[in-house]
Amino acid sequence: MGYEDDMEPQHNLQKKKFEPYKLDSLSIEEMREYILFLKNEISNTEIQINKRVILKGDAQSLFKQ
Question: In the chain, which residues have pLDDT < 50?
Answer without folding.
Answer: 1
